[in-house]
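Ticket opened by: R.M.
Priority: normal
Category: complex prediction / small molecule

The reporter submitted a protein together with pyridoxal-5'-phosphate and asked that the result be attached to this ticket for the collaborator who will pick it up next week. Submitted input follows.
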Amino acid sequence: MGRFCQIDKYMHKIADNLTQVKQSIQVAARAAGRNADQIRLLAVSKTQPAEVVAQAYAAGQTHFGENYLQEALGKMAKLESLPLVWHFIGPLQSNKAALAAQHFQWVHSVDRLKLAQRLSAARPAHLPPLNICIQVNVDRQATKSGCSVEGLASLAAAVAKLPNLTLRGLMAIPNPDNSRTAFADLRRLLEDINLMVGLQLDTLSMGMSADLAEAIAEGATLVRIGTAIFGERNL
Ligand SMILES: *Cc1c(COP(=O)(O)O)cnc(C)c1O
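Result attached by the on-call engineer:
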């Protein structure tokens, strides 16, 4: 009995947090002269158990982001009956590409052609094309994953040609110290790629709990929010 009361309380907390995050999105969109309908909220559920994802779903959330493949597959199996949309947002080894292609609807962390080729080859024929964002090392961090700014145009052109993928846009995880500048740079890169390569990319995956408003001010169409919805992660 006590345990159920606790779960119930936690569920209200998640629902409240979701309401608050949506409100922050509204406020930031209005301040930027944008329509909040153009901004998708991705709930980053890494390290959260399946029960917690189910609670967020009960509170109206359908898009979830995961960083670790094995952890995500375990949750998906438990939540099979729910119509959830799963986004892979973590680093992905090429030898794990097949599993990601089979189980996710989106991969945001494509940073090299070999990975994109493997995702395309492994995408099951009965599923729609896998939605792809290219992760860009937009602020040129030495230790960061992501395609280089210089390599982006040729990678985007090659990924766009792969049969079982739909290249949707760009993703970045900039250093918090200069994230607003990096967000603006990522938006310009998206505009340049569309012009130079002749694409119609519509997705800017940028902004986390700490810099959601800055990302929206610079044109984010998808914000990836973990802590502000689920609380601090213990791991
Ligand atoms: C963990 C993570 C997030 C969410 O970060 P919060 O600060 O908890 O909102 C977003 N994007 C990526 C790629 C992440 O790994």
